[in-house]
Amino acid sequence: MYVCICNGVTERAVRQAASGGVRTLSELTRRTGCAGTCGGCAEYAEKILDEEHGRVAFPLSLLVAA
After folding, report:
1. Are 29 and 39 in contact (CB under 8 A)?
2. Pick from 14, 17, 55, 66: most CB atoms within 10 A?
């Protein structure tokens, strides 16, 4: 499946880049061109990077002791 239509970057290419050490969106853009044109794919590309590196974002509220 294509992640970045503008630059023809597939999900497989993003996962391979992550396996090759790419950890950030800016590194991914430099390596593959993903998210380098319109940026519409940036959120999904970051999600794939996070999955490949075992990071999961939990939308938790900040707990403050009163």
Report:
1. no
2. 14
